[in-house]
Amino acid sequence: MQNNILIIDDEKKLSGLLARIIELEGYHVWQSHTGREGLKVLSAEDIHVVISDVKLPDVNGVELVKSIKEKKPYAEVINLTAFGTIQDGVAAIKNGAFDYITKGDDNDRILPLIARAMDKALLQLKLYRLENKIHRQFSFDVIIGGTKPIKYAIGLAKKVSDTDTTVLLLGETGTGKEVFAQAIHHNGPRKNQNFVAVNCSSFGKELLESELFGHTAGAFTGAMKDKKGLFEEANGGTLFLDEIGEMNIELQANLLRVIETGEFIKVGDTKTLRTNVRIIAATNKNLDDSIGKGLFRADLFYRLSVFQIVLPSLNERKEDIKLFALHYLKEFAAKTNRKIDQMEPDFIRLLENHQWKGNVRELKNVIERAVILCEGESLKADMLPLDFYIDQDSSQTPFSLATIEKNHIQKVLHYTKGNKTEAAHLLDIGVTTLYRKIEEYHLE
């Protein structure tokens, strides 16, 4: 990466001389003679350090620092002046300038100053790009879908992300609950703090208690040293409790206490610790049923469900299936360095007619498998698993007459774009018979 410097100075001879000296050090230099010109160059080029005169024809160089920082937050600015004042120097630094020096200082000072400014700017650029990458990765814009159910869920998530409110995400397995939790955190007031996730179904009561609250050395067999819990790790940030419906009811009382008071005690300890975390919980269970069966505390449910968001299943948003498939096709084609960029109509039709019990997670796996099997540039129907050809609601085999009949009717309906009268004509059966077959085979 080239180290780029912009000089803004209306004294063209001095500007040219300074540019030449800097270029001899290996930097790439742009020159502008007004503040307005300088900001245009800043917008068009990847500038890292700006050296600006204080007295410019159209703007004060000290005030220009603010505009430079707005356009390029990572860029460093050095103000040059013929007659320096303490007041201007203080204002320049306050506005974000790296330094404020008097013209005429020898090159032994200006060049090391530029080098330090460049080092800082390049480090800040790396951090800036990393932060932007994280923001893009966890932006609401990465959530795929244009159907009403998913748009409604995204709208609710955006509204609650600006707050510190506890959120409960409800939905089937594979509907993207952790994706939503990450987006809510990274677009909220705690985005610069930790996001810590735990799957409550992955641990027994004792282990989950230790994971959440930590333990002291000797608290139980195998506890050789003190351990921080996730409530400590997430302090100031967000703790995502996935599959909260699987948590042991005794442990739920400890969780309720933390939510209500912000206080907890490590396993094996007597000292009370404090934490400040935002809780986002998720479950694929019906917690009302769990409460009725005595498996989930009603008071904890009310604490967690201050703001509920129900995530739609893939079967409720069939129109989004093609979007997901294209997204994962690009992802896996790039990973395997394959030129595959198309899906045949029959492949898409079978995807859209499938009952997605595993939702988006299942679809992702299906596309990855198809990409592995593909030998051309297009995904075909025969690259899908066998169960895509089996009626999920019957015991028919893929080779039974009923299955063949169902698939044939399905193809004809697809060909006629759903026109049942035309489909019945092509099939040489009555419309009433066609409607009966559609109902029998659950084709709608």
Offer a few descriptive terms.
Helicase, Ruva Protein, domain 3; 4 domains; 47% helix; alpha/beta; five-stranded parallel beta sheet; 444 residues
Architecture overview:
The model is unreliable at 391-395 (pLDDT under 50). The chain is flat and about 95 Å long. It has helices spanning 12-23, 35-44, 61-71, 86-94, 107-137, 148-161, 177-186, 205-213, 230-233, 249-261, 287-292, 298-304, 321-335, 345-353, 359-373, 401-415, 420-427, 431-440, and strands spanning 4-8, 28-32, 49-53, 76-81, 99-102, 167-170, 195-199, 238-242, 263-265, 272-274, 278-283, 307-310, 342-343, 378-379. With 444 residues, it is an alpha/beta fold. The two termini are 57 Å apart. It has four domains: 4-135, 3-Layer(aba) Sandwich (Rossmann fold); 143-312, 3-Layer(aba) Sandwich (Rossmann fold), CATH 3.40.50.300; 314-389, Orthogonal Bundle (Helicase, Ruva Protein, domain 3); 390-444, Homeodomain-like (Arc Repressor Mutant, subunit A). A five-stranded parallel beta sheet has the order 2-1-3-4-5, sandwiched between helices. A five-stranded parallel beta sheet has the order 7-8-11-6-12. Strands 9-10 form a two-stranded antiparallel sheet. It is built from 18 helices and 14 strands.
